[in-house]
């Protein structure tokens, strides 16, 4: 009975995955039309290519983990992504659009607010999706996985963009590359025959990640001087990086 229900649920989830892909294509095409007409067609093409690559990765990530659309304490697969995961996917779309600005010149005039605005929307959706999941009781392993991956992806994109705009220092890129380095280090540890234990529970991870997001949002918005954002980001990155090092050492066995 459960297997039959899960089979139906998987089919429905795959159709929803396809809808998410169509929405991504339409959104990217709309972005190209707007940027190509407002800026130049060449800028629109460059933005579109990078945005499409990030969206493709996010769509692959969603498809790979569709079978985790369930609660940790319930084996039954849910047949709908739900409103909370939809908010998370909207965050992924905002991050993909932000990534496109890595390959075009820094906007000027009122458009200068656009990259920072996109990242601020992504940060707001990060809070909203968690609140929605708790509010309607739809927490899932899939949502948690996407949330973690999008957190790391967003910090990497924001860090690279902030560095290119001169509002974040080059050493702040350590924050964006912390998660890939953490996962890569554990992979090498396993390859060498080492064991990896469970990551200890800690509320500080979420707090420090949220602090980085807030700093990046402020840095990308034209609201403070670059000297201020550089000094602030340097201070807040220290405990964040220290926690990653601590966690890496803690899970190695």
3D architecture notes:
- This protein has 253 residues and is mainly α.
- The chain has one domain (2-251).
- It is built from 8 helices and no strands.
- α7 packs antiparallel against α8.
- The longest helix is centred in the first third of the chain and has 37 residues, at 2-38.
Task: Round the mean pLDDT to the nearest integer and report it.
Answer: 91
Q: What is the CA–CA distance across the termini?
A: 41 Å
Quaternary status: single chain
Q: How many separate domains make up the residues? A: 1
Alpha plus pi helix count = 8
List the helices and strands and how they pair.
Blueprint: H1 2-38, H2 41-64, H3 82-99, H4 113-136, H5 141-165, H6 173-191, H7 204-220, H8 226-251
List keywords for this structure.
mainly alpha, globular, 253 residues
Short description:
By secondary structure, the chain is an all-alpha fold. It has one domain.
């Amino acid at each position: 009975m459960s297997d039959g229900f899960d089979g139906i649920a998987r089919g429905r989830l795959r159709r929803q995955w396809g809808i998410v892909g169509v929405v991504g294509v339409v959104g990217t095409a709309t972005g190209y039309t707007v940027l190509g007409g407002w800026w130049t067609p060449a800028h629109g093409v460059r933005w579109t290519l990078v945005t499409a690559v990030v969206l493709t990765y996010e769509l692959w990530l969603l498809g790979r983990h569709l079978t985790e659309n369930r609660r940790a304490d319930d084996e039954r697969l849910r047949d709908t992504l739900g409103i909370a995961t939809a908010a998370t996917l909207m965050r992924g779309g905002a991050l993909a659009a932000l990534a496109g600005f890595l390959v075009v010149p820094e906007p000027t005039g009122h458009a200068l607010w656009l990259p920072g605005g996109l990242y601020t929307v992504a940060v707001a959706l990060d809070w909203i999706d968690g609140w929605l999941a708790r509010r309607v009781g739809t927490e899932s392993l899939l949502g948690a996985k996407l949330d973690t991956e999008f957190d790391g992806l967003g910090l990497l994109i924001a860090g690279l963009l902030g560095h290119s705009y001169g509002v974040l220092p080059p050493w702040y890129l350590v924050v964006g590359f912390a998660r890939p380095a953490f996962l890569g280090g554990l992979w090498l540890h396993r390859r060498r025959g080492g064991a990896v234990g469970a990551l200890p529970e800690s509320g500080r991870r979420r707090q420090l990640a949220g602090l980085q997001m807030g700093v990046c949002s402020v840095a990308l918005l034209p609201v403070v001087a670059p000297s201020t954002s550089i000094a602030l980001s340097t201070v807040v990155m220290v405990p964040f990086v220290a926690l990653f090092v601590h966690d890496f050492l803690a899970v190695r066995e």
